[in-house]
Design goal:
Length: 490
């Protein structure tokens, strides 16, 4: 079970992280609950620790190693039912210029029920590091009498087990994938689920188990991502499934598993959400001249008052490099049919299940940023704040309209997790004109964005200066600390 998008449980953050000057280790956490054929239930936890956020010291073999202590506690009505503390060691290394992530899997046997769970993570090699602690509620186990579909364990890789281990399932050793985010570099989505008590529903008759991907926005199945098989009823049926998602474009999706009877009626189903980041080139993917838009929504977009051109231009924040080049040259494209084909193909590639709905949902966001961030000379989607909002979504935290007599007006945005998988990234915008609402992106910690080591100096340009090229920060005469505010938004 993932911790952000999944619909069944609202629990912890999608990652565990300390937010202070003495930050703690960064850990990603997911979990899944299963039953055994005899009806016992267990709960598996999957942790991945970011190697760059922990301290390595030399071990007894003079190699560098990290040591993380993980504490976990399950309670019901203030009564502790099970607790565990263990140390997770990274692989020993001679060179720590690169610090790979490292993972752990643990299994806990608990009776069926709802539990309060508390997790704490500490870097034992770094006494000044902040301990990270989170808590929430989880459901463990499934009914022994009715049809049920388990949580899903997303898997990075799997192989037939040569020597079964404590966490081997159905004859396979599995490396868990703890994120609900699939970047462009990943070409497969692998998962493991179990279906319980089909024998009590179907007796001796056969039935179908199907799994497929659907748009999270429209819930329309995506035809090319579907699989079904006929099964004979049993107490537990394990499913190890995979999809090649190399051509699955950016968007929010659900992996859906359904049990269907012989009359094609769905008896039960369960969905598991994930986000795919995979910008696919629109103009390179197909020859625009061959795209037929007859009868599509794009064929009826008005050209009055340059409405069609405006619709194409507002795609810029979410377009890839090649598509942005097309949009930049929009004034050279006099053929409105070409613009319509480009526009339709853009949405057909980004939301193949329902291109029109994809556009409708995005247009609502465009109107929202236009209302908030427009200036006298530019639409909101063209302003830096509007572009960032549309490209990455709403910030997790927005510290806005800062008033400091020593600086230009500014605001700070923080993203706990971005659509492209980056975590704890910040943006600072400032308004040097003082009067236009055009806040310019001054600096960001996100990959691919403006990064200026002298951003703090530029923020104070109107009151403090001159400064030299080697200077990176200043002391605020009003007593505020913009560097601290940026590093630790309140």
């Amino acid at each position: 079970m993932r911790l952000k998008i999944y619909i069944a449980i609202a629990l912890l953050l999608p990652f565990l992280k300390g937010y202070s000057q003495a930050k703690g280790p960064e850990a990603y956490f997911s979990y899944a609950s299963y039953n055994t054929p005899s009806g016992s239930s267990y709960f598996e936890t999957y942790f991945t620790i970011s190697g760059n956020t922990v301290k390595y010291i030399k071990n007894d073999s003079s190699q560098y190693q990290s040591k993380i202590q993980i504490s976990i506690k399950f309670s019901q009505k203030d009564s502790v039912k099970l607790s565990d503390v263990y140390n997770l060691l990274s692989q020993p290394a001679i060179d720590i210029s690169k610090k790979p992530d490292f993972s752990a899997v643990q299994r806990y046997w608990l009776p069926k029920g709802e539990y309060d769970i508390q997790v704490k993570i500490e870097d034992k090699n770094n006494p000044t590091s902040k301990a990270v602690s989170v808590k929430g509620k989880v459901e463990i186990g499934y009914s022994a009498d009715s049809l049920a579909i388990s949580d899903a364990e997303l898997i990075m890789s799997y192989s037939p087990s040569q020597h079964p281990k404590a966490y081997t399932k159905s004859g396979y050793d599995m490396v868990p994938y703890v994120y609900s985010f699939y970047p462009q570099s990943l070409k497969e989505l692998n998962f493991y689920i179990e279906i319980y008590n089909t024998i009590k529903t179907f007796s001796d008759s056969k039935f179908v188990i199907k799994y497929f991907l659907e748009s999270a926005e429209t819930h329309n199945p995506i035809t090319e991502y579907s699989s079904l098989s006929v099964y004979k009823a049993d107490t537990v049926i394990p499913i190890l499934g995979t999809f090649n998602i190399e051509k699955l474009p950016t968007g929010k999706y659900n992996l859906v598993v359904a049990v269907v009877d012989k009359s094609n009626k769905t008896i039960t189903e369960r969905g598991y959400g994930f986000y795919r980041y995979n910008p696919i080139s629109v103009t390179a993917s197909k020859n625009l001249d061959k795209i037929d838009i007859k009868g599509t929504f794009a064929a009826y977009i008005s050209t009055k008052n340059d409405s069609l051109r405006e619709d194409v231009k507002c795609l810029y924040p979410i377009a890839n490099t090649e598509d942005r080049s097309f949009i930049d040259d929009i004034n050279l494209h006099a053929d409105t049919n070409l613009l319509r084909r480009f526009f339709y193909n853009f949405w057909a590639m980004h939301f193949p299940s329902d291109p029109q709905q994809g556009w409708i949902d995005y247009l609502k966001q465009v109107k929202f940023v236009n209302k908030l961030f427009s200036t006298l000379t530019k639409k909101g989607y063209m302003a830096d704040r509007g572009r960032v909002y549309l490209q990455y979504g709403a910030p997790s935290q927005r510290d806005q309209s800062k008033i400091n007599p020593a600086t230009y007006p500014y605001e700070i945005w923080e993203y706990y997790q971005m659509k492209d998988g980056q975590v704890d990234k910040k943006f600072i915008f400032y308004e040097p004109s003082l009067a236009t609402n055009d806040f310019i992106l001054l600096h960001s910690t996100a990959i691919g964005e403006v990064q200026d080591r002298q951003w703090q100096l530029k923020l104070y340009t109107q009151t403090i200066g001159p400064y030299n090229v080697d200077q990176n920060n200043v002391e605020d005469p009003s007593g505020e600390n913009t560097l601290d505010e940026f590093s630790n938004p309140r």
